[in-house]
Amino acid sequence: MEKNVYEFVAKKTDDPIVEWKICTMSGQEFPIYQSDRDFYDKISPMLNGVKYPIISPTLCPEERERRRMSRRNEWSLYRSTCNASGKQIISMYPDNSGYTVYDWKIWYSDQWDAMEYGREYDFTKTFFENFEWLNRVVPKKSLHIVESMENCEYCNYGIFSKSCYLVNGWWRAENCLYSIIPVRSTYDVDGGFNTLCQHCYQCIHCIWCFVCRYADHSNNCKNSSFLSFCNNCEECIWCVNLQSAKYCILNKQYTKEEYETRAKEILKDRNTIADFQGKFELLVASSPKKNVNNIAAESCFANYVQNGKGHLFCSVVFEWTGNKYCSYTGMNKEDPIYDGYATTQSGYVMETCGFTGRKSAFMLTGEFNITDCYYCQHINACEYCFWCIGIKNKKYCILNKQYTKEEYETLVGKIITQMVNDKQRWEFFPTALSTFGYNETIAQTFYPMTKDEAVQRWYTWQNQEHFANIPEGMQTIQGKDLPITIDGVHDDIVQKIIVCEETGKPFRVIQQELDFYRKHNIPLPTRHQDIRQRHLLKKRMPKDFHLTHCAKCNEEMLSVYTPVLWYQVYCEACYTKEIYG
């Protein structure tokens, strides 16, 4: 982000910038606020009566997030082999990964003990060299799902859900297919970041929507298609910025009879839908845009906040207060977190990726109930642990080895001192030690790079292509040759392989999916689910913030839109007045 963005926030929040730093990766200048220093001090560990201060980061916020995301493989799944049972499984790791991988049910069971891999810290090696040895030998779980899941064997990173398929990051969802982070939703198909939605298709950032298709940033809508930033609408098609409307097409009012006739013509097949797409895109481009998309947000310089207060430089935050530099976090009313990704129900934590706990830092996919832990991965219900992997219900452990409280605090103090000497003090896990290739992770989705660019930044790369083998005798059909209506699709389509019209990648339609398309009269998709998600994500608002002026009142404001002539970007007050009257 530009320097003036940081200065604008400092002025508006009365939070002075006490230091400017140069990112060691990108060369970009970024600030340290007084509130940053106060936060780092609050979460710094106290050992034998001595505080070991967590120092300010060396990377700018964007590079810190890229580094965290490069540890998160949500979508790249492989047919693999469980090293405990020898059975075929679906896994985040291909067989040639070099890691020992257990089926997730075995990993959570009592069939093995991560403490058996414990070792003493070797001071002849660096801090991260010690960890990498442990990282190589402790078994990894095939998928990040837990026992609260039912019939979700082909999903990743989810909890408290049922009968979902190829979904990632979901919470209390049911019968969702190919979706990204559906929350409390049912039958969310090909969706992204939807909350409390039911029977929706290809919708993104919607709340409380029912039987909607191709909608984005819309709330409380029903039986509608192709909506953008609409609220409380019913029976509407191809509309933008509409409020409490019914029977509208391209923002024009129709009678009930006129609407039903036109709707049947427009949505009758894949071709007529495509014909109208261009008209809708022109309407979207010419319509006023809100600088950010927050709901019930107070004193926030962030985007996609729901029921939050005091968030800075965040994206997608639910029911939280005071977070900074975070994305996809939620469900904690009070204590803040810094530099978190997919972190929930936590407080006073920083540099975490997939975590639930308190007063901890530099954590990779922690499980639950974690307190005062640093540099750990996949641990559960632990306190005062340092550099541990896969342990459960433990206290005062280092490198999976048990110590007394006195031994623990003395040894951790010595290790931190070595980190200072090795210039590794309070640095996040090095990019070169990631268990995944950059192109396997969500970092490639939000911060795309070529292989050469990734290697120059010391990221690993998945070089081997893992093709989906089409079983012998299976019938294939080209996506472009699929019937243009769902009525023309026969039951045997679930036994066929469809070839993506854009990439040539094979994919299938499962029975649960076919039933959904038939129920809602939706044509079969002609593209692979990965490509459908990629196109869907293009509807999201941009990620970075820019200092600009409201096109209506000229008030200085932060916006996620780069100032361009063909966009009318309004501040919240002007947008509300323009749209709601």
Q: How would you describe the overall organization of this protein?
A:
By secondary structure, the protein is of the alpha/beta class. Among the domains are: 3-58, no CATH class; 211-287, no CATH class; 546-580, no CATH class. The chain is 22% helix and 25% strand. Strands 9-10-11-12-13-14-15 form a seven-stranded mixed β-sheet. Strands 21, 22, 23, 24 and 25 form a five-stranded parallel β-sheet that branches. Strand 5 (78-81) and strand 6 (88-91) form a beta hairpin. The longest helix has 17 residues, at 270-286. The mean pLDDT is 92.
Average pLDDT confidence is: 92
| Multimerization state | single chain
Cα-to-Cα separation, first versus last residue:
33 Å
Main sheet strand line-up: 9-10-11-12-13-14-15
Number of strands: 34
Described by the principal axes of the CA atoms, the overall outline is globular
Helix content, binned percent: 10-25%
In this structure, how is the largest beta sheet organized?
7 strands, mixed
As residue ranges, the low-confidence spans are none
Strand content: 25-35%
Report the total helices. Answer: 13
Radius of gyration: 25 Å
Question: What would you call the structural class?
Answer: alpha/beta
